[in-house]
Protein: Metal ABC transporter ATP-binding protein
Amino acid sequence: MSAELTRPGRSGTDSTSAPPPAFRVTDAVVSYNGSPAVRGVSFDVNVGETLAILGPNGSGKSTLMRAMLGVLPLTRGRIETHGVPLRRFRDWGRIGYVPQRLSAGGGVPATVREIVTSGQVSRRRRHRWATSQDNAAVDDALAAVGLADRARDSVHELSGGQQQRVLIARALAGPADTFIMDEPMSGIDNENQRALADVIARLGDNGATVILVLHEAGPLRPLLRRSLVLANGQIAHDGPPNGVHGDEHDHVHPHAEDTPSMPAVPSIEVPRRA
Ligand SMILES: Nc1ncnc2c1ncn2[C@@H]1O[C@H](COP(=O)(O)OP(=O)(O)OP(=O)(O)O)[C@@H](O)[C@H]1O
Structure:
């Protein structure tokens, strides 16, 4: 897994037409019991973009994210994913959702490797054994997040930050080229934050679309060319992140030469789409 991929639709020299946006949200309203939490938002997320959806508590970030994942219905408006209306979208393997926390898992002591392998469910047919290619993708994903040496450990032995890296590895091991990460930095120590920021940076470098749902840009700020700030269910800012609400705490730089815990990690392959 060493292919360096270009950003799809970004070169400007390609004679083929640009792909449709990874997400096109048009006048979206999402309500709970008739009360709107997202109130008429419109934006595109282009293929290959890394952007943050920012905003204070209760501003509607999670509600918008869940609508984009097809979990919450729209009261009004439209969402298209890779050119397909959400209700007709079937290619969910393309979307790598990284939740905030590992769920308790019913007390079953899953290993790190088992959790990461579960990211391949949508790409495997049922009753088919893992191929050597599947296993290699899991190895690469674990190496990319710096957890190759923890593969056999129970996830419950890992710190919160390491568990977050397992969740990212799970998304990396699958066929996704579009990632939605819910507060990937919350409750994570500085070392793990740097490791995670580095993984996210390399995903973007390799052409993935990355949407980060965050309270504040913090250590991810250097990765962002764009932030979309919600306030009271509406877009308060859509543009470069500098100086907008929620961007003020950038203590850690992700591309640090001072990240000894993340030595030579393999590049992350993102499936190339026609
Ligand atoms: N299941 C629900 N039922 C009713 N109201 C809800 C529900 N979930 C969220 N809300 C309300 O919708 C609004 C937006 O909440 P949402 O969780 O989307 O905001 P958020 O920006 O993600 O906040 P946080 O950062 O705290 O997660 C809030 O007023 C919240 O109280």
Observations:
- Helices lie at 61-68, 112-117, 132-144, 160-173, 190-205.
- The chain has a mean pLDDT of 80.
- The beta strands are 23-32, 35-45, 50-54, 76-81, 84-85, 95-98, 178-182, 209-214, 226-231, 234-239.
